[in-house]
Amino acid sequence: MDEVNGAERRWRVPPAQPVVKAVAAVAFAVVAAASLDDPPFLLLALVAAGGLAALALRDAIAPVRVAADDEAVTVVSGYAGRRRVPWPSVREIRVDERRRLLHRTRLLEIETDDDLYLFSAFDLGADVRDAAGELERLRARADR
After folding, report:
1. Which of 23, 28, 49, 108 is the most exposed place for a label (fewest CB within 10 A)?
2. How far apart are CA 79 and CA 75, in angstroms?
């Protein structure tokens, strides 16, 4: 989480994350180049390399996934677009927690009048419960 000033908060992808994805994309590209004689494996490696490269590019273009101030919350929408949602249009902020195969997943859900935005700890660079609490505090301050 980044603090810009006393009233604004930003949650961003950790800086190492796009680097790791880019390195993995290069590794898959090398594997693809080494498997030119195996078309199915070549295709699979190229798809993996392309997907990882696209994700790394998104992390570099739009590293800040959620930003909030006293007036609104700004969220990443689509591939790398941003949408500013005034607090009165935010219906609910909650944490969805599920347990699957000995693994617990938590997602921050920001429900607006016309959409639902989901963010993981990897998107925020922070625990989603902490982010939800801070967003609720900013929202409550905006209601006053």
Report:
1. 23
2. 11
The answer to whether 9 and 138 have CB atoms below 8 angstroms apart is yes
41: which 2 tokens? 């494996």
User: Tokens in use for 31?
Assistant: 């594997």
Q: Are 63 and 12 in contact (CB under 8 A)?
A: yes
In three-state secondary structure terms, 72 is strand
Element (H, E) at 96: strand 90-100
DSSP 141: H
Strand (E) or helix (H) holding 102: none
CA-to-CA distance for 7 and 13, rounded, in angstroms? 21
User: What are the tokens at 134?
Assistant: 């801070």
The pTM assigned to this predicted structure is 0.83
